[in-house]
């Protein structure tokens, strides 16, 4: 099945399992029962990756109560952490597993302010508690610093979507070092689905691009989700694209939409006009109401 090459790159982002999150999320946290259904559907479709974090409310605990199968689980150290070994111990207990696929710094400042935590992560890896270690970053300048300091890591999680392509120039170098690239913010917290009239004036500078995206999808009889998702999953450098889910139907819809990817491939679309330089648009923590 041709679409399987895309499905195998999907990871489930679980922030909404533990927190109310996302500009287009009107449902709040996902219930534990629905989490169980999501994980079952993910397993049935051979989706292998789950992404969580100590800072995602009770996401780790909810996953731990519902894990009945073996996923590759990525979690992240708390920004307030003082001891990485203790953080990993808590994550493993919460998730009710013996080993994590990967453990990341949730933000670069934690690494910068407490470099000893990186040494502890390396120890945890050598002890077999974690298979891979790495970083969740927001800015290319942070990646530059890691390269300058010759920090050897296994996995990188970064924002990447139709608007935000700041890390693209580094993809080839990362792959040459066999570093896994996991991307988040594929739908920019749902901004790509929103109609302009439902957005604050903060987004005025991006309104034309959003309109153009919706018109392009409509002209080719595609769901609004299809083009942003295709753009990311079709990039050969991306290993895992994390999809934040607010319901079981979100995953069902995404899996169904992937069936249209053969059609999108044939369209040979040029997505370059959607790139956005304004950080107040592409970085959700800079959004204003």
From TrEMBL:
Occurrences of domain NADP-dependent oxidoreductase (ranges): 9-259
InterPro entries according to UniProt: AKR2_Oxidoreductase, NAD(P)_OxRdtase_dom_sf, NADP_OxRdtase_dom
Pfam families: Aldo_ket_red
Protein name: Putative oxidoreductase, aryl-alcohol dehydrogenase like protein
Organism whose genome encodes this protein: Bernardetia litoralis (strain ATCC 23117 / DSM 6794 / NBRC 15988 / NCIMB 1366 / Fx l1 / Sio-4)
